[in-house]
Structure formats: C-alpha cells, structure tokens
User: What shape does this take?
Amino acid sequence: MKRVAFAACLFFAVLGPAPIYSQGCTQCRDNTAATPPSTQRAYRHAIILLTVTGGSIFIATIVFLKRQD
Assistant: This one.
C-alpha cells in the first residue's frame, strides 16, 4: 500500500502544473536598496523567521501524519 501511495504522489508531482513565478527579485531588491541598513537587516531577519516558521509547520504536519500511520 505504501508503494502505491508513493507511486501516486510521484506521478502527480511529475505531472503537476508548471511552477508560477512571482514578479521576481528585482522589485524587492530595488525597494530594499532604497532603505537604511537597519531596515535591510530587519528584512533579512524577517525572511529567516518566516522560513523557519513555515518549515516548522510543515515538519510538524509530517510528524503528525506519520504518527497516525
């Protein structure tokens, strides 16, 4: 059963829609370059915080689902 589920996930991941890209980093880079260094530092910390938070929620969900198995 696990092999079938894995194969189905792999199948849908390969045939899934093409990724959609946002407006790109140039606008963010231009807006950030016009700010003082303290604000740029705050942006860097915010990016790390958001990445860690999202990753933690993802990992917690995976752990929770594995325990249900």
Residues 37-68 form the longest helix (32 residues). The chain has a mean pLDDT of 83. The radius of gyration is 19 Å.
